[in-house]
Amino acid sequence: MEQDVIDYFLGHDVLVSPDIEDEPISKDEAENILNIFNDELDVLDQEVLDLYENRRKDSAITVIESHEEKGRSRSFQDFVKTFNQRYENLRNLLENRNQLNTLSSIKRVKQKERGSDVGVIAMIRDKQNTKNDNIILTLEDKTGMCKGLIKKENEPELHSRARDLVLDETIGVNGAWLGGILYMQEIIFPEVPRTKPLKKGPEESYVAFLGDPHFGSDVFLEEEFKKFIKWTKGELGGKKHKHIAKHLDYIICPGDVVEGAGIYPGQEDDLAIEDIREQYEEAARWLDKIPKDIEMIFIPGNHDAGRLAEPQHTISKDYAPDLWAMENARLASNPSTVRIGQTEDFKGFDMLLYHGGSLVYYADQIPSIREEGGQKRSDLIMEFLLQRRHLAPSHGSTPYVPGEDQLLIDDLPDFFVTGHIHRARATNYRHITMINASTWGETTEDQIKRGLEPQPGRVPIVNLRTRQMTIINFLSKSTKEAEKERVEQATEV
Predict the structure, then answer these.
(1) What is 473-488 written as a DSSP string?
(2) In a 10 Å sphere around its CB, with 0-12 CB exposed, 13-18 middle and 19+ buried, how is residue 13 labelled?
């Protein structure tokens, strides 16, 4: 490495590790490295170079955004920065909505005459229900706070929407100022514009979603996964399924590549492979059987090696060298944004990949979702997040790293892909294809105790030319019967 390149890194407060000083890195590459890592590197070392090389692979998959910020100590001010940034970004989205015609700050609203029509953009600081089931919100912006009232008797539809409001989310409100309280008449979310076009690819091409494999688990569905691999090779299925396999170009895995260890009490009883590095070796052994002309991308989940707080860094090469070495495999962070299907004449499809750490929280906490099936309705949970334009709008919904808010949904994707809750579902919301992938493990006693009902062995698939969706079930009849019997026995106990 030339001295001027080293000086360039030093000028951006990045130290160069002595073990890579001989690497032939040009000035242009140095600039690219800083751009990829958002100028937030402290040390340029071999791990960072490996991540950089992974981005540069000649692939039909482009990693648009992957979060690799190095760990550092955090303070209260980092949480302040998170919420300030979140409010400003969502405020900018809401200001473009034509429903908020009388927009004012809360400070100015308090100076208006009683009965004035007002609009505010505010974060929800508190939410209470009165004995008459009216809803009172504490609304806050950077200028102050005020109370917002929704009367069930006078505004039944609005009251129904307000039941699903959560702390810390940012909303737009229209209403009347009644001298001390804002009588709310309309709630506006950051939302997905109805004008978002439905993008379709120029050629027939398919993408399959491989949910939560959990390699290393002793309930891994080995026979079912063998069937999946045979299908990718065009050796299994009828004419239709073989046709899809012939045109299968991508496999997307939204996390929990391996079973991990120490995730829940008693997990050691569910492990076929105890060492997590050996679990990744097992994963690579299975995945290497998939045809090399099928591009694959993997992000981490809560069972993978690394921190639990989001964003989770890309799975380390130290833990999964065989996975990194696969010529048709790419790795990115959780969450991340990747692009597939790009050509000279077609921009491609942007995919927001998120393992789904917040999904269980909202399945349990949001009344309308809970009443419709909770975790069984991943589509409703994902719609909820898209409406808020945030992957975890409430503090406490998932562990996160404060500072830059990297869970915002700033740019709208063409696909929103999650895993984590082990349910297979494929739906659309305002021209965004929403996929919750499945799992490849039998139902465990821990899942039964928690009231979960996984759908293992399913693979959602999308035709990129038509955007039509289907789900192929690889679960064998014997496994289905065993699953049913196991759940029934647990229920009886």
Answers:
(1) E---HHHHHHHHHHHH
(2) exposed
pLDDT tens-digit readout, 375-414: 999 999 999 999 999 999 999 999 999 999 999 999 999 9
Amino acid letter, 418: T
Q: What SS3 class is residue 240?
A: helix
Prior bond to 367 cis, omega within 30?
A: no
Task: Decide: 315 and 255 in contact? Cβ < 8 Å.
Answer: no
Give helix then strand counts, H and E, for the chain: 15, 19
Strand partners, 124: 139
Alpha helices in 346-377 (DSSP H): 359-365, 367-371
Please state the pTM of the whole predicted model. 0.87
Q: Which domain holds residue 46?
A: 3-56
User: Which two tokens mark 297?
Assistant: 């991308």
483 and 370, same structural domain? yes
Instruction: Provide the strand spans (E) within 202-281.
Output: 206-209, 248-253
- The answer to whether residue 493 scores a pLDDT higher than 50 is no
Indicate the range of 17-21, 35-39, 234-238, 390-394 predicted with least confidence. Answer: 35-39
CB of 221 closer than 8 Å to CB of 440: yes
What pLDDT does 492 receive? 45
**H/E segment holding residue 226:** helix 222-232
Per the structure, how many domains does the chain have? 3
Q: How far is CA 301 from the centre of its chain?
A: 10
477 in a domain, yes or no?
yes
For residue 61, being part of any structural domain is answered with no
Q: Is 184 in the same domain as 244?
A: no
Distance from chain centroid for Cα 303: 15
Same domain, 213 and 184: no
